[in-house]
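User: quick one, sequence for these tokens?
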């Protein structure tokens, strides 16, 4: 079954402009998912170290299924600070050097990490804001979402040696909704990603196709069918962005797999010349616990700058 099709705009029908004003976003290393292949523009190769997934599959196993607890990568602030390209001031960096840590040989009892608290008020009443300090962007999610720690990168490893896709300032919808063997499944995810160079419309299409393919491809199984909408200009704060929607039909289905999925991308001029910021919103479809389409529309509509524009901007 194919997902809700025919919407070229943000959460609406083809030809309709998104009724919600859109604005900026958060950080993801351009090295991990750079520009779409373009003549004369080299693909960046550097990136943060890849750590084993916090749950589900391990990084770069070549195995993909929709919403397996991703290859969640907890990048320590020390690593972030050591990479100049990722240095961000005011991101709530942890200066803890380990002083005062317990010297007991027994491991501390495990407890769920508290969700980060955003200082940005939500736009949607009763929801919570997820903000990106670097990109100056924010979006809102309902209580069915789990907001991941700011330093966590989430994404999918690439098949056959291809580069992975990663995003930051991530929230997951119905985390661990299903478990199949060692793989945990969520039903949706959202976050920010950064690309180097490339036309904004091209980046929006490239990102939608790449995230849809990476998230819903299982090595050795038939590839999913991905259908992209035409790029559509949308309002992003006082500026503009480009929205593309990918409808995905999954041919290979396991016990926890959804028969369809939707990937929305909104690409905007980035925080520096030659960079493009992309908001990614993905959701399984065709299963009882799938995200309602009305909620998808609200999440997209809540996209906005997290900081007031500077005078004269």
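Assistant:
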């Amino acid at each position: 079954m194919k997902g809700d099709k025919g919407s070229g705009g943000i959460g609406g029908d083809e030809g309709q402009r998104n009724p919600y004003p859109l604005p900026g976003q958060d950080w993801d290393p351009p090295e991990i998912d750079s520009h779409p292949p373009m003549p004369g523009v080299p693909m960046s190769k550097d990136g943060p170290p890849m750590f084993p997934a916090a749950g589900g599959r391990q990084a770069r196993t070549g195995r993909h299924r929709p919403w397996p607890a991703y290859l969640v990568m907890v990048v320590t602030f020390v690593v972030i600070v050591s990479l100049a390209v990722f240095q961000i001031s005011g991101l709530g960096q942890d200066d803890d050097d380990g002083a005062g840590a317990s010297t007991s040989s027994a491991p501390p009892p495990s407890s769920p990490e508290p969700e980060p608290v955003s200082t940005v008020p939500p736009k949607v009443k009763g929801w919570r804001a997820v903000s990106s300090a670097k990109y100056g962007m924010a979006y809102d999610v309902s209580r069915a979402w789990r907001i991941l720690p700011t330093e966590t990168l989430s994404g999918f490893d690439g098949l056959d040696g291809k580069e992975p896709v990663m995003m930051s300032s991530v929230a997951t919808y119905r985390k661990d909704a299903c478990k199949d063997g060692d793989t945990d499944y969520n039903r949706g995810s959202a976050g920010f990603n950064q690309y180097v160079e490339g036309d904004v419309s091209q980046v929006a299409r490239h990102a939608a196709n790449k995230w849809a393919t990476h998230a819903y491809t299982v090595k050795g199984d038939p590839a999913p069918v991905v259908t992209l909408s035409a790029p559509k200009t949308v309002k992003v704060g006082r500026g503009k962005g480009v929205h593309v929607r990918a409808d995905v039909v999954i041919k290979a289905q396991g016990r926890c797999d959804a028969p369809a999925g939707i990937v929305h991308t909104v690409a905007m001029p980035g925080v520096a010349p030659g960079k493009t910021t992309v908001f990614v919103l993905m959701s399984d479809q065709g299963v009882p616990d799938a995200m309602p389409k009305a909620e998808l529309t609200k999440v997209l509509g809540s996209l906005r700058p997290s900081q007031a524009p500077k005078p004269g901007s």
